[in-house]
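PROTOCOL LOG
Step 1. Enter all chains and additional molecules of the complex.
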Amino acid sequence: MSKDSSLREHLLSLLTGGNAHADFDRAVEHIPAKLRGKIPKGAEHSPWELLEHLRIAQWDILEFSRNPDHKSPDFPTGYWPAAPAPADHKAWDDSVRAFRKDLKAFCDLVADDSTDLFARIPHGEGQTILREALLAADHNAYHLGQFGARATSSRRVEVTRSLVPLLPVSFTPAPLPATMSLPTPSPRAPFPLPTRWPGFPSLRS
Ligand code: NI
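Step 2. Run joint prediction.
Step 3. Record the structure below.
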């Protein structure tokens, strides 16, 4: 395999493989509709805000990479939705679909042999498709980490709740030995947010 195709494979794997892909699917499938617009305690953003931020940022990087006439949204407000909650189910589904469509388009661009990964983007300021693909993968992974963790924990709560009625009536947890004690729960720390948003347009130079 040539170095060029090997690099393309690594990029595709970063964009779609492993945790990033799984986290996105888990996040959008397992966050109950009633929680989509709710900002969890200790967090900065609702699932809808994260979903829309992921979609808008990825779309912006993709369009910048392939469209000389693309105009980026205002930073930073244009990269976030106006409200914490989606207007309706359709808005959520449309955003999910658009994110997946743009990700597919990004992968097609990277996989295309005629795309020079190292050439400067003609309408840019030194950026390359390689750099933009890495930026998109990095930004997606960062926010999917927030999103996926939330989806996983809300799913765990649901599963636990659904199992409770199945426990035998006589079930009682064994008492802890006197020498043991449960750890004191610590308040969940807020997600560490960067002092500068890690993408646009500052990192483009
Ligand atoms: Ni971001």
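Step 4. Note key features.
The CA atoms of residues 117 and 131 lie 8 Å apart.
Residues 5-166 form a domain with the Four Helix Bundle (Hemerythrin (Met), subunit A) fold (CATH 1.20.120).
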